Structure formats: C-alpha cells, structure tokens
Give the backbone structure.
Amino acid sequence: MGLTTHRNYRLFLYLNTFVIVLLGAAIAGFGVFWLFPASLGDSFHSVQAIVRELGKVLFWRVAILYAVISLLIVLAMAVLHLLYSHRIAGPAYRLGREAARIARGDLTGNIKCRPKDNLTDMADSLCNVVSQYRARINAVKDGLASIEQKSKTMSGLLQQGKSEAALREAANDIVSSVKKIEQSLSEVRT
C-alpha cells in the first residue's frame, strides 16, 4: 500500500497524450501528402508553373490543415485529461466528505470507488481505520456496560451485607473490566 494513486497513472496519461500528438502529426502529414498533385507535369516549364501555383494554394491549405489538426489535438487532450482528472477528483471529494463525517464521530460510512478510480488504496485504508476504531469503541462500550452491571451487583452485595470475599471478587471484576477498557483506549492512541 502506501501509494496515493494507481502506480501507472502518470505513465498512462503521458502515453495517451503522446499517442494523441503522434496521431495528429500523422494525420497532418497524410493531409499534406494528399494535397500534393500526383504528377507535376512533363516539361520543365509546366513543373515550374505547377510549383508556383502550389506555393500559393498549398500554403493556405497546409496552414488550415495544421490549424484544424492542432485544434483536434487540443480537444482530444482536454477530453483525455478531463477523464483522468475525474478519476482523482471524485475519489478525493468522497475521501474528504468521509473524513469530515469521521471528524464528527460518525463511523458508519464506507467509501465506494469505481474500479478505474485512483486513490482507492487511500479509501481502503480509511475504511480500515474506521472499522478498527468502530471495533475499539464497541469494546469500550461493552466494557462500560460490564462495569455498570458489575457495580450494580456490588451495590446489591453491599445492601445484602455479603462477606468481604464476595465484595472483593466483584471489585476485582470491575478492575478487570477497567483494564480491558484501558487496553482498548491505548490501542486507539498508538
């Protein structure tokens, strides 16, 4: 554990961005190739005339082609980064909301993450902490209920005028319950 995001998150994001840029460059290169005429002519003068004409027309066509391809690359990268950012933003929001509930003392929640979300290891750790604290708090509550019951038993023994041995046994039971509570509380502090 110990990671805050999936191990290959950055690598996948960089690779996908790189693929989008390469794909855009390949499409632009193909477009430029497609804009050139198949033959330049048979004579030197016809080739010169076609090259001059190409210089005028091709510049604007290539400029427009590269502008459109650049716009498509920017849009594709924006969509890619938006999708990847939601894999972090959503879980981070849920983690923050759950941490606020825990701070208020509500230990009933559980953080749900989608399979492709990042920060799932942090969510699992937080759920584990909540579960452990809930178990410790329940142990303390059980210990307090036991002390309450044993103190009632001791009070009844005192009212009945029972022997010192019976009172000592009831007091030892209470001390034992207090030690269990102390142990549960020391686990919470460590």
User: Anything to note?
Assistant: Helices lie at 9-35, 44-103, 120-160, 164-189. The chain has a mean pLDDT of 79. The chain is about 80% helix and 0% strand.
